[in-house]
Design a protein that fits this description.
- By secondary structure, the chain is an alpha+beta fold.
- Helix content is 40%, strand content 20%.
- The chain has an 8-stranded mixed β-sheet with strand order 15-14-13-10-16-17-18-19, with no helix packed on it. It has a 4-stranded antiparallel β-sheet with strand order 1-30-29-28, with no helix packed on it.
- α3 runs antiparallel to α4.
- The longest helix is centred in the C-terminal third of the chain and has 27 residues.
Length: 930
Amino acid sequence: MANFDPSARTVLEPLSNIDLSSYSGTSLRSLAISSISDSQSLIYVGTFSGSVLLFSATTTAAAPKDAPPALDSEASRKNVSFLRSISLGDSPLETMLVLPEIGKVLVLCDGSLFLVDTLLSHSVKKLSFAKGVCAIAKSIRSSELESTSLLGISVNTLESSSASQRILQKFGGGIRANGVKTKEPLQWSEGNNVFAVVIGKRLVLVELVFGSNRLGKTDRDVDSSSGSFVILKEIHCIDGVKTIAWLNDSIIVGTINGYSLFSCVTGQSGVIFSLPDISSRPQLKLLMKEKKVLMLVDNVGIVVNEHGQPVGGSLVFRISPHSVGELSPYVVLVRNGKMELYNKRSGSCIQTLTFGGEGVGPCIVANEEGGIGKLVAVASPTKVICYCKVSSEEQIKDLLRKKNFKEAISLVEELEYEGEMSNEMLSFVHAQVGFLLLFDLHFEEAVNHFLQSETMQPSEVFPFIMRDPNRWSLLVPRNRYWGLHPPPAPLEDVVDDGLLAIQRAIFLRKAGVDTAVDDDFVLNPPTRSNLLESAIKNIIRYLEVSREKELTLSVQEGVDTLLMYLYRALNRVDDMERLASSENSCIVEELETLLDDSGHLRTLAFLYASKGMSSKALAIWRILARNYSSGLWEDPVVETDLQDGSKNIISGREIAAIEASKILEESSDQDLVLQHLGWIADINPILAVEILTSDKRVNQLLPDAVIAAIDPRKVEILQSYLQWLIEDQDSIDTQFHTLYALSLAKSAIETFEVQSVSKSPDDERLEEAKFSDFSQKSIFQSPVRERLQIFLLSSDLYDPEEVLDLIEGSELWLEKAILYRKLGQETLVLQILALKLEDSEAAEQYCAEIGRPDAYMQLLDMYLDPQNGKEPMFKAAVRLLHNHGESLDPLQVLETLFPDMPLQLASDTILRMLRARLHHHRQGQVSFFT
């Protein structure tokens, strides 16, 4: 951006030029302005010859912008007209105080005070007051709600002058008009026409009163001759007072030696600041807006409060002024035909104007009453030039035309602080600056300003992304933004036009012609690609922030859809997928072709899924899985860190299956789920199980349809689903229980056979087993036989005979024992436990469950005569006799024992059996007799 010269601000424009030679033969001595309406002001010119000249200035028609400061044109003279003049004597008019609230002008001339009406239509009234007045100032209060007694008694309401007079009389003093000293009053009247007058070493506080006040008439109802001063208080002052200001309860006076503060209540005084021996004339300016006093020390302005204490920083001026004025929020200084405006807050010089040449003599500046008007008059001894304040809007426009963007924003913030501009206007200017910067190819700064605008709509950037007409064309606000920038155009066109302007500027610079194009661009011309990338990145930044705002649905749709366009333009795949997979307002039909043609199928799948178009999303994931596995597409392998520090590698086809499973887990569309179950199961059976058993869907799938759809080769998927139905869904359908048992039994048989083959390395079926489905990693943590056994024991709803038929020829003896037990085949159960499994403990436990003594005898017979060529199981028989001998009949045991059974194994046991039997017999006899 171009460098900014603060003095280039245009705050004041020349309005009119008054040549005093046409109206008076002498030069100007004093100057005052009073506003009578928004468009008309009165200008009072006091001359050295004792005359008051009255002019009327119209501020509705500003002077041409290109006109010189000293206007002599006919157009300028139409803005000001001479009304009349009046003579007060032959001496210079030192001071003129306009009192618009009472329609009077108080004039200090030759040490005397005169009173005239504002239109100079009545005769002059010379107030009979003490001679030798050297300075006068009106009392100004920071609050109109309270006043202060000159005796130090605070009051909250102002009373009439008649009441003041009665109070004075109560204190023993009578009011004597025409300059006669009176007793001190408690407070002054509600008109607040109270003044501080310096006469030599006396500081006299007086009130201007009118006889009509006591008669209930208004000030405007009486002739000026009825006005008179009433002395309220007299304070001992210092000699040589040059300037005076009265704020609240404090009066500040300035002499060549320095500034002093007097209390109008106590009369006490103190030195504020001593001036050096060689310094400019002291000057005080009451700043009406802030209710502070500006104290001049050469070229430094010190702002003090009513206590004389500095507030804020000092204002350092370029010149030591002849006169100081106020045009809120500025201080106006004049000297040697030059006028300068300084910002009160920043202290910077805002504008410099020349209205006369060197050596023009002392200059005067005057502003409207209150310092917050829009007219300023400056005068040399023979000429008065009126300047009109340019409207805030026009000032901002002018700065923007000059590309002084920072200063424009600063001005708006300043005006907002002063209460002269709304926050909406500040937002408007931020948006305006943003568009100007955007067309100047400063995209980052442009978006920064967009983001600071609270009123700018995101739809205003839509035309920069998509050409009109489009779906959102009618949503774009037709804000003109003062017509300072071209109409919105696609970013490509903005960049191309900007590059052409840069090339043109380079050519003109070589020819010696200055241009408004940024110097950095001229010295280092940017490339189109870099500019376009920067533009897109920053518009993305703006839209991303806009997504968080409360927008209408149509605007939100535009923001999200066009954001996807921009992501795609920069190939920001992660951002595309994040937006598509999150809650969004993208318009699918606007993006389908774009994403499909550019190959961003994953983004399109996410988008379909987020919009509930599950079928289309799943179709894409299926295509992606097929292409990844076939090698047609590059496999986007993803590595994730596990807790144990290892890496988990997920292939592209697995990612496709995972994303598809997320959709299917929530879908209640049974046909859709079963349609895609197969290819997901081929990639990851666990995902297939999670789909079938998901509790995220509203309506569960029909079990019969699911079972029928499961690939018979995907046995573990079927088993997992049946297990979920039985254990989690508490299904009591015997069909499912039987099917689950049969499936587990079949898997157990096959697993047993595979394991048997693996134990025989020479078996030619080994190689085949290595590639069987059962050699793959199981989705279950526990072995299939363990699961089968647990289920056979826990469920009573399956058909044990059907399961038994399946495993009859297998080696699953424990499972057979469980099934025979279910069928009540006790002998078969004992045979399996004792002879097949040789589990003596389990066999004995089963006998205990049967609860009959003959069961133990039957088990003993099996141990001693196992048949089928098997050797007797003497150790098991001895264990049985040892553990349960008391439950057996010794005679039957002796008959059962084999002749060749080693007696040393059985003798102790038989002896213990006999003793146990005898013990039981004797216990029975005792019980009988007792």
